[in-house]
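The freezer alarm interrupted the setup, so I double-checked each line after restarting. Inputs confirmed:
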Amino acid sequence: MNHKMIIHTIGQVLLVEAALLLLPVFVSLLYAEWWGAGSLLISAAISLVCGAVLTLLTKKRKHSIYAKEGLIIVSLAWIAVSLVGALPFVISGAIPSYINALFETVSGFTTTGATILLDNQIESMGHGLLFWRSFTHWIGGMGVLVFVMAIISRTPDRTMNILRAEMPGPIVDKLVPRAKDTAKILYFIYIGLTLLLIILLLAGGMPLFDSVVYAMGTAGTGGFGIKADSLASYNHYLQWVITMFMLLFGVNFNIYYLILIRKFNQAFKSHEFWTYVCIFLVAATLVTVSIYPIYKNVGEAIRLSCFQVSSLLTTTGYSVADFTAWDAQLAKTLLIICMFIGGCAGSTAGGFKVSRLVILFKKVCNDLKKVLHPRATSVVKFEGKVVDDTVLSSLATYAAVYIMSFITILILLSLEANFSFEANFTAAASCFNNIGPIYDVASGTFTDYSALSKIVLIFAMLLGRLEIYPLLLTANPYTWIKK
Amino acid sequence: MKIIIVGCGKIGKTIISSLLKENHDVLAMDINPAVVEEVTNVYDVMGICGNGTEYETLKEAGVDKADIFVAATNSDEVNMLSCYVAHCMHAKHTIARIRNSGNNSVIGLAFMKKQLSLSLSINPELQAAKAIYNIIKLPSATKVEMFSSNRFEMIELVLKEESHLDGMTLIDLRKNIKQNFLVCAVSRDGKVYIPQGNFKLKNGDKIGIIASGKDAPKLLKAFGVQHKPVHNVIIIGAGKTSTYLAEMLVEDKIGVNVIEIDEKRCTEMCEKVPSATVIHGNGMSQDVLLEEGVETVDAFVALTGRDEENILISFYAMSQKNPKVICKVNGEELSDIAEDLGLECIISPKKIIADIIVQYARALKNSEGSKVEMLYSLLNGQIEALEFNVLPDFEFCNIPLKRLKFKDNVLLAGIVRGTETIIPNGEDSIIAGDRVIIIAVGKTIYTLGDAIKETAK
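Predicted 3D structure, all chains:
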């Protein structure tokens, strides 16, 4: 185990976070929120000092990292950025309890969007802190380490292990030969799409600050808002724009790269993309039918159902209506199922991922065929390529671990006395899949959960964002025992 | 530069790792998915799984935008075909690994290269055989590299325990030996230095000397390292490298004894090199070796396909005191271990090939005032020796060297002007048309201008 390299990388991540914290400082100063700026600056300084100490302590180090180190770096880096990222909320007094602040920050970085803040607390929070809260979505969406990789001068060998551990999806491919360039291209596309969204929102009459915050929340498929009713009070144009962009950010970014380099054929051949579109259309239609009796207006039903399905399928978690209170069981159930499916691999969305679902479904069909024709040979093909047996078996394992993790979280949450099963189930599902909303709770937030449950949920969010293995491996004592 | 490598075996991986150090964008292609996965995990490259002769795969790899296309699979035919297809798809330069001797006769190779529009063909076995041949011709050295078509030689040698040079400074050395030479690098305890005049030599040092080719034997004699010409050689293994080596040695009237365990290969060897003595027996057996006179032979070359066997049998041969032992080791880790254990002469074909490709890539990259002609990595790859062709537009032409300030850890080791070889001193200057040899430690020099910091006032 190369401890020094792990510590060094975490130091680098903290240095980058210190730099990132300066952006909300700037926003605070713009709105003349001196104390907000101060608290953010202090946090930036703490991050800078910690990062500098860690990197300087480990100046002499071996560069080699293997898959194991990659996974550990990713999980520890995410924990470190969250621990530091929570400081501004505590120092400024906006969220006095550190556990609550940590919950909010992890919810931000993992693009969950689950909040412990009540509506009046959000509205009284300064612009700088609100910006930071949503900015965590934006950073976490594409990945903290991917960002670090894009800006550090030279990536050593084997950095694929880090990229692979942080990027969601069963098969992670590079776009171009160098990991650094791949990271740059991803961020280039990401920034481009975000800017486009901001412009479209501004064109629809949304104030600048709101557009930036909602654009970052949409881009990271996060879901933090700044209004009590999320997006319900904005006009229909803005809601449709957000619906479209949530869907766009749930698409594999490789497709955008292929479009950028004008390989349209290859881009639109993607099986995963079309499956994703189909799932959206089917779910949206069914939800429309299901909620039509409530609204008695086809246009209204279509708008609401498209927005909600898009929001939950891409694990964003914005809402334009209080869908948790809909009197339409089919719609509510479908939305929960959308939460579990999630977006495409290689996007900013969470959940189980469409590609995994497609491959597993094909595998199930093949196995059923094998029961009918015991001598039949079959292969699973995905995106025009044969899926390797090792990938298949690791996918099946992932599915099992995914379900077991969910059950564990659910059981731990059930220890709470005051919450219904529906509340606990949706809380677990929404944190684990990085979505945010919760059913059957009066405040609509996580604030009433006990500190212990919040810690469970914090881990649930990290597990969901990092796709389970990194954290499991880091928590496993055998990883650390020297043989 | 964008470089595509087809075939990620031992050679392919070494090429990839050397090219990455030079900051090229590398795309690795192999037909075996497990190999592609391993390569992409270890190196910062893009991996593509597929057949390098197929249009679709090459298209996906973006061959049309590739600056260099290298085919290094283990099949000559695949390499030639994929290079040809790549050329037709507008890859700028194509390099094929071609190693069957039938394709490597001078005329045959020239024909193939022309017909397939190859920029370069590489033959690891032939290159290894040449390197071994150079050492056998100069057995006191552990490595000999040729510059400027053999005008300059770079000789690596180890100062043995009984060396009378122990404690001598380089200035004294110059005074004692009235020859034209330059000690340009010293490796001691794993570190490499470019020595100054007051540098003291020590026993156990590995030193690199540059001298003109015809002076080399005399020079080594003056150094006091024994230099007995080799008259007979035992070669273990009758693979491709052995065949090439035996052919060269036989031409020089050196007796060759090849020991090979496989009967079919023995017969092949007999056909190709009739004047060599071919023994069908186990080269790992001490009895066989003693029978063939390992005690009295002048040189012993271990060239079986397995690194481990080569290393072990080389140690046995070294215990015989008499022969000069040369050992082929392909694995990097193993060659380091073997060197630590005391094996002096280790030949690694894949490193030689990687050097050639890096040299080719560098020569393409630059053009300002100079052109890389040769590149060797010496003393375990810790230093690089480069030969530049000085073009007329080189900015430091005709300035005496004492007024040029070279960068740290960079040395101008030799100048070839026409047929004349010059070990430069402060009064000499670089003239257009010269060939210049530069030694650099831990640095990458792309052009001759890179080596020079400034002109002193």
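Quick read of the result. The domain at 232-347 of chain B is CATH 3.40.50.720 (Rossmann fold).
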